[in-house]
Structure formats: C-alpha cells, structure tokens
C-alpha cells in the first residue's frame, strides 16, 4: 500500500484523497513545511505531493520543500502541484529535481498516472544515488554485484560518468539497464541537473514526437496548451531513451539531428530551441540486425554507440545471486515498519535450486520472486516446495542416480514422467521459453513439445508482471 504525503492547502489535500479514495493508497495531508520535514525523517513515504513553493519575481524558486527533499531524501519522488499554470515554473521545478509537475487543469486520471509511476519507481530504483549505500567492490547505487562481469561494468560506469560521451546500454530485459543510466548520470557533473527518462517503446509512435520535443497550442487536435518536451526539460542534464530500437524511422532522423546539433523544434513551431544535454540510450534488441532489416538507421546507431555497455544476464553471473537475495530482503525489511516481518530465511535446498535456475527474467525476476515469497510464505523459512515449478524443475538432475530414484519411492512410470518434466523445464529455461529452440535442443518436434507442456501443465514464469527496472 503506497504511502503518499501531501503538503498543501486543505483543498488540494481533499482533491488528492478523493483521487485515491477507492484504492489502497494511504494519503497523509498536512500544510506546514516544517512538520512535513519531521514526518519524512520519522516515517516512510513513497511519494510527496506539494504546493509549498516560493516563486520569486524572476520566475525561480526560493527555499522550498522540494529543495529539502532533493538534498535529504533523494530516494523519495516529489511531485509539484501548482494552481497557477506556468511553463516557466514547470521547467524550473523539473530542473530543481521534481519528479513531475501537475496543475489544476490536469484531470484526475493524469494525477493517478503520475503518482503510480512515482511510487513504482521509488520502490525499485530511487531517484538519486544514495551515498550511504555505496560499499566499494560490489555496490554501485542500486546496482549490486561482485562478479568479474559486474566489476567490469562498474569500472566502465566510473570512467564514462566523467565524460560527456553518448552511451548505448544493451542487454536482455530485466538486467538493470536503467539503473546503469542513473548511475552514470548521478556520478557525473550533471548530477544536480535533471535526469529525464522516457521509454520509446511504451508510447505510441504518433505521440512520441510530441513527448520528446513538445508541441505548441493548437498544433493538432487535443493540443489545448503548450507542452514542454522531454529534451527541453532535460536541458543542462541527461536524457535516457529506453528501448531506442522501437523508435520509428521518421523520429530517428530527428533524433540524429538533436545528437549532432543539440537543436530541435516543437511540433507546430518554427522556432529552433538550443539545448545542452547528454544522451544515454538502451535497448534489448540487436540493432545491427535491425539495420540489416532497414528498421534502424545505421548513422544513428554509430552516433549512439560511442561508448557501448553490455549488461550481463543473471545466468552468466550466478555468483551474485546470494548477494542480490540479501539486498532485496534487506530492502523489503526496510521500506516500512510492517514489512520487517516479511523478511524470510531460505533453506539450503532453496538456495541450491536458485543457483541452478537460468533466470530468463534476470534480476527483475529474482527481485519479484523475493517479494512474492515474502508475501505468500507464512512461516519464517522458505522451503523448496514454496518455489515456483519453473525453479524446482531446474533442480532436477539430468541423470539422477538409480539408487536415489529407487529410494524416492517413485514407480517406473512416475520416475520417467518426473525425468521428462525436469528435462523439458531445463530446455525451456535454457532457451528463455522459446518453444521452437527448446524443441530443437531436445531434438523433438515443436508440436510434440507443446503437447507435453500442456499434458504436464508446465507454466512459464510470468515475466510480463515483473516491475519495471
């Protein structure tokens, strides 16, 4: 249940409470800034919404709650809610570290959407690098690992952060590409300027141009007011373009110009806007193959791929799994007071099964599993039977000894079925549940494999439900 602190007048507090009246959000509303700071020090909140801003005549902020949050509670997103609609103030708010800027003209659906994004992100990555979390050798902000593969990534981040070079981060889904982008930004000289994140694959192509570059009032149907684009909001800081491989060819041309000249025009405008930004991009696609298929521009690829960072999948750095388990458990126990009882212990058999599993969903899947087990397992100890079938199947040895099979009490047919199940699960996990590849690995027809999966009621891990990294 997300905790929301609203520091605003009574009308705004009532509005926010009304927006979430039918949901499981806990909204605390107060007016005094000093009292809010005290509450933030004593309790855990997922997001803060505030109108406590002191706008000077020059259009900038004086001392505000936003400044205190950015300085002392950088992991808590702060949403500015203003009654006066001002492009100048919205840009200033984002530059000063606000997660987003809302006004009285925004509908309730927009408020709910922004708050949901903020609460989901505060629980996964945080909005600032937490200095107290830095342990030399195996931690880099929210990135965790002591394997040689991750040490190489950490060293690259450390070098890249000091430069202005464009970085292309590649890797499978769930490996933590956004965390690497945040680590680069918050260890650079731009760390006190905005980091703007946009998922190019999550926004329809016809809306992405307006999202990136902004639009003028009346430039198209529904453009009721000026919209500041993400590139303009990122001025002076960094913009992170996630899933860059999903961008349309037309937009790729415009992005190439921004990279080359640091200029663009809003949709519906002829006025050229100059910006000073650093571009970080990420994708889980093979862009070279996309170039061959004429889906991605070759000149844009080489402009983005100045410094490449390839994030290793979890299966290639399994030595980090115990460290990651401890990290996620510690965070589950530290979010709120009532979460401490959810921290569990793991039996040796459980840990062994986790080490044998291939983790097709990578670190995101492991994080999701830790939270799932902490909620569903009633006792203090997680046993082998509590694990999902996909992980239990990875524990099955390909060639179990005859003695262990006989001692297990299984009959001949049951033992053969169990062996087949384990063999199929291992092939599926090894090929990330691509049935055609698994069938090829097992040297059987794909239709035969599908029939066996249905007969044995083997279900894949629900990767689509994992929280975004």
Describe it:
It is a single chain. The chain starts with a strand and ends in a 13-residue tail after the last helix. The strands form six sheets. The protein has a five-stranded parallel sheet, with helices on both faces. Strands 9-12-15-8-16 form a five-stranded parallel sheet. Helix 10 crosses helix 12. The chain is 43% helix and 14% strand. It has three domains: 122 residues, Rossmann fold (3-Layer(aba) Sandwich); 182 residues, P-loop containing nucleotide triphosphate hydrolases (Rossmann fold); 131 residues, no CATH class. The C terminus is likely disordered. By secondary structure, the chain is an alpha/beta fold.
The CATH architecture of the largest domain can be named as: 3-Layer(aba) Sandwich
> How would a textbook summarize the main sheet?
5 strands, parallel
- CATH top level of the largest domain is Alpha Beta
Quick one: CATH superfamily of the largest domain? P-loop containing nucleotide triphosphate hydrolases
Question: What is the CA-CA span between the terminal residues?
Answer: 20 Å
By DSSP (H or I, 4+ residues per run), the number of helices equals: 20
**Helical fraction:** 40-55%
* β-sheet strand percentage: 5-15%
Q: Look at the helices and sheets and give the structural class.
A: alpha/beta
